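Possible regression after last week's pipeline update?

I re-ran a chain I had predicted before the update to compare outputs. Posting the input and the new output here so someone can diff against the archived version. Not blocking, just want to make sure nothing changed silently.
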Amino acid sequence: MLVMDGDTAQALIGVRIHQQNGKSIGDLIWAAGFSREQWQTLLPELEQMLRDAGCVMCRPIARPGWSRYLKKHGYRLKHVIMEKPL
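New output (post-update):
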């Protein structure tokens, strides 16, 4: 998903739709851009886009800092992913 402000790209969001137990799930697998406060409010539109595609769940895979914003919109912590450089 490309977020534009006029002729300027503000953000690019990676979305993956896959099947789990016979249901479509929309994963937000990455996001990058400028002025996050301006485009993060597009979350309801992105959720509707996923509904229109037949998804029954939206799962952002995000850094911990996103949890404050997402919790305000009904999301809950489901898993923790840890990593270690090798």
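Follow-up from reviewer: compared with the archived run. The mean pLDDT is 91. Marking as no regression found.
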